[in-house]
Amino acid sequence: MDINLVDKDVYARDGAPHDQFRWLRANAPVYLHEGEPDRGWPPFWAVTRHADVVHVSRRSDLFSSSRRLALFDEMPEEQRELQRLMMLNQDPPEHTRRRSLVNRGFTPRMIGALEQHIRDICHQLLDEVTGLPTVDFVRDIAAPLPLYVICELLGAPVEDRDKIFNWSNQMIGADDPEYSSGPSAGQAAAAEVYAYANALAAERRERPREDLATRLLLPDVTGETLDENEFDLFVLLLVVAGNETTRNAASGGMLAFFEHPEQWRRLLADRALAAPAADEIVRWVSPVNLFRRTATADTVIGEQEVRENDKVVVFYGSANRDEDVFADPEVFDIGRTPNPQIGFGGGGAHFCLGNHLARMELRVLFEVLAERLPRLAQAGPARRLRSNFINGIKELPVTLT
Ligand code: HEM
């Protein structure tokens, strides 16, 4: 089989290349994938089985995150520098200190306290589109929800939401003219978010509140605290990591329900299924397709030897359809239990900080949709994002009644 896991046209047309993934899992689960040497992009080991993705994710001593996580190094130098400073791109022990400081804001209790706010936001978004003949599910529901939730989490005032939403779109789609006016607009927006976070922190230091921002700025039990720069970078990471991922999970989940109407009917009959449905949606969609690591020593993945400095790319979308782990992996089943999906990462140091929050957003959204819009229907084709990194949907027209 011809293998090309980087061709963005394939992702834009079909979503993830599941035929190739299936073939690789069966025939070459750790596969040496071509790079593009004339553009300075090295070859990489494509890791497609669940067990191997988990292994690479958990062994951050052997597979470093600090040498650029995306497939190829397409970004300008200044942007790369900014990325380097973010927790996502750091290894222990540097990473460990920051992660333990931010974990305090994401305990199940802190996140649980947000449920009613999330429900209110879902109702408000639906109120705004009620009565319209067709709406774009992405623009009107899936995109604003996670961004408004992050604003709520930070305690940003409601009147700032549109501004932050706009910055986040500029950053997310820096190479997509439909979202953004270009990479420099993306960088300018990142600088705005950074400055916004800085001002927010100054405000909270002066007038502490019951919100995540205040909590993260306070010293922990050992007296450690995030410094100003670390706080600002963390807010920037939240806006990037918590936003597009959840947006695409919600839109991809909606599309999955349209393509499997019997699962929608199951949800309407039993809204308690919204909880397992959230995990099944993350498995099915795998909104983050891949992350890259760099081997820190000669080692093995499965039966394959890899060398120090080799690039290793884990494909979550493939691991989430591994027939050794999931019965009928090609079936979208909202009642699937157990569901050891690894769309939030394969475990280990970088496992998604926002996983409880994202699950709650998806559960509440689909509970509210099932309650208020049982006749929701697709009104036109979905348009997919042209990206091999994010499995995204740009537009999904729907009718509400
Ligand atoms: C990390 C997926 C939602 C914040 C990650 C990773 C993945 C991921 C694959 C990397 C895991 C690894 O390298 O092992 C997702 C998906 C989401 C989602 C699929 C939605 C369905 C969120 C939300 C937030 C968030 C809502 C916060 C509001 C983060 C952060 C990291 C991260 C801060 C970096 C953690 C670290 O480096 O220690 N996420 N995520 N994510 N995610 Fe999420």
From TrEMBL:
<dbReference type="InterPro" id="IPR001128">
    <property type="entry name" value="Cyt_P450"/>
</dbReference>
<dbReference type="GO" id="GO:0006707">
    <property type="term" value="P:cholesterol catabolic process"/>
</dbReference>
<keyword id="KW-0408">Iron</keyword>
<keyword id="KW-0560">Oxidoreductase</keyword>
<dbReference type="GO" id="GO:0005506">
    <property type="term" value="F:iron ion binding"/>
</dbReference>
<dbReference type="InterPro" id="IPR002397">
    <property type="entry name" value="Cyt_P450_B"/>
</dbReference>
<keyword id="KW-0479">Metal-binding</keyword>
<keyword id="KW-0503">Monooxygenase</keyword>
<dbReference type="GO" id="GO:0008395">
    <property type="term" value="F:steroid hydroxylase activity"/>
</dbReference>
<dbReference type="InterPro" id="IPR036396">
    <property type="entry name" value="Cyt_P450_sf"/>
</dbReference>
<dbReference type="GO" id="GO:0020037">
    <property type="term" value="F:heme binding"/>
</dbReference>
<dbReference type="GO" id="GO:0036199">
    <property type="term" value="F:cholest-4-en-3-one 26-monooxygenase activity"/>
</dbReference>
<dbReference type="Pfam" id="PF00067">
    <property type="entry name" value="p450"/>
</dbReference>
<protein>
    <submittedName>
        <fullName>Cholest-4-en-3-one 26-monooxygenase</fullName>
        <ecNumber>1.14.15.29</ecNumber>
    </submittedName>
</protein>
<comment type="similarity">
    <text>Belongs to the cytochrome P450 family.</text>
</comment>
<keyword id="KW-0349">Heme</keyword>
